[in-house]
Structures are given as C-alpha cells and as structure tokens.
Amino acid sequence: LIPVLVNGMKYSEIDIILLKGDVEEDEAVPDSEQDIKPRFHKSRTGMVPYLPELIPHLIQSLSDKKALVRSIACWTLSRYAHWVVSQPPDSYLKPLMTELLKRILDSNKRVQEAACSSFATLEEEACTELVPYLSFILDTLVFAFGKYQHKNLLILYDAIGTLADSVGHHLNQPYIQKLMPPLIAKWNQLKDEDKDLFPLLEDFMIVALDLLSGLAEGLGGHVEQLVARSNIMTLLFQCMQDTMPEVRQSSFALLGDLTKACFLHVKPCI
C-alpha cells in the first residue's frame, strides 16, 4: 500500500495544469468569485519523533522555486503548529514565523492563501508567544493589504482577527496605529451594499450591534455624547425583539455595555 500511496502523491502533468502549477506569478490575475470557499485546518501529532528533522526541512521547502511546493509546505506546517509552539521559540517558532511572513507576501495567489491560513493557525497556537514579533508581523500584514485581491483579502481579515484574539491587549499602542489606517481605508472604499462588507461585518445587524458594543466598551463614558445625539435606545429595543436569536443576543450585550458606559440614557427606557 505504501508504494502505491507515495507514487500517487506525485503530480501528473494533468494535475499540474489543473492546479495551475506552471503559473508562478499570478497575483495580478483577477479572482473568480466561484474560487472563494472556506478552508479549515486542524493540527495532528502522529509524527512527533520525526518532527525535529522534518520541520526544518518543511521550513526550507517554503522557499522552493515551485509555487505548489511552497503552498503545500505552508499547509503541512500548520498541522504541526501545536508542536512547534511547545518547543523553545528560537528552535522552530521564530524561523517558521519568519518564512511564513515572507510567503504571505508571495507573488503567487495560491501561496498567499496557504501562508495566510497557516499563519492564522500558528497565531491560535502561539498566542502571546508572538508578542515580541508583533511589529514585524503587522508590517507584513499591512503590506499584504496592497497586494491581495478579493479572495485572499478575506483570509487576511481572518488572520488579523485571529491575531487580535491571540495577543489581546498587547496589540494596543503603538501597534494598533499600524493596523487601523489600512482597515479604515478599506472600510471607506466599500459601498453599503458591497459584498466585501461581509468579511468585515459577517452579518450586518449582528456585527453592527457588536461594533457599537466595542465602541461603548472602548470609549467608556466618552460614548455618552454619541448616544445623546442618536436614537439608539429606540432601535435597540426593536433589535431585542428580533426573530434571530443571534441579533437578540448581541442586543442584550450592547444594553449591558451602554448601562456601564452611560446609564443616564438607559435609565429613562427601563
């Protein structure tokens, strides 16, 4: 069985054509809408005794001249992110992160996608281990905004969101100053009905409510003057009666945040 499987792993000429493996640089080729689909990866460790030898080889493969090899190396390494993070940082995490960030800026879209997805997995496993490298990470992700097309932008947003979840408050000043301008620029480019709002907002009502919750939590008492100039309490009451449980959930969360931040506007509505 082993020889049959290993022999079958080799790409045929037809495979390479179908996978566009003969195209090395394609970042300027427009994305097709039907190409955009979710991908999920989980890490496995049936292989632990061999990883000290295998991981350096895979990291080296991230620089292979063939785009298909670079992309599959990204994906394979993401499967072992948990083990990488459990070792001393200088041994595997630092070289892996350095090479993955280079591949995020690859000139091939398939490699960009694989590297970004792989890095998101690494972020989930590494969490605050990434803090010493935040400046380098953000420089790369921000630069990718200027390179990526529609499909890979969705994955880039996910990687940025995962980074925020992973490092928490460590993303505050001065790092946040690097990240917000390109995000706000993307926001300002989009029309209200643009489908590209979905990765930024997921569902319009739910994330609009969550965005307001974030503002109330972040601004604290300073949000009072914004609430005073709006009819948010009336709208919030309507949202609390929405048919979707997720909308009602976000509505009550916002009520809690507004109660803490500016109770004087909540009190008349009780």
Question: Would you give an account of this structure?
Answer:
InterPro entries: ARM-like (IPR011989), ARM-type_fold (IPR016024), HEAT (IPR000357), Importin_beta (IPR040122). This protein is an all-alpha fold. The protein has 16 helices and no strands. Helix 4 (67-78) runs parallel beside helix 7 (109-126), helix 6 (93-104) runs antiparallel to helix 7 (109-126) and helix 7 packs parallel to helix 9 (150-167). The radius of gyration is 22 Å and the shape is elongated. The protein starts with a helix and ends with a helix.
Rounded mean pLDDT is: 87
Low-confidence stretches: none
Q: Tell me the fraction of residues in β-strands, as a range.
A: under 5%
The major pleated sheet works out as:
none
The backbone outline, from C-alpha atoms, is elongated
Instruction: Look at the helices and sheets and give the structural class.
Output: mainly alpha
Write the layout of secondary structure elements.
Layout: H1 2-8, H2 13-18, H3 51-61, H4 67-78, H5 81-86, H6 93-104, H7 109-126, H8 134-147, H9 150-167, H10 175-189, H11 197-201, H12 204-219, H13 224-228, H14 232-239, H15 245-261, H16 263-266
Helix pairs in contact: 3-4, 4-7, 6-7, 7-9, 8-10, 12-15
Briefly say what this structure is:
The protein is an all-alpha fold and 270 residues long. Helix content is 64%, strand content 0%.
Key structural traits:
elongated; 270 residues; 64% helix; mainly alpha
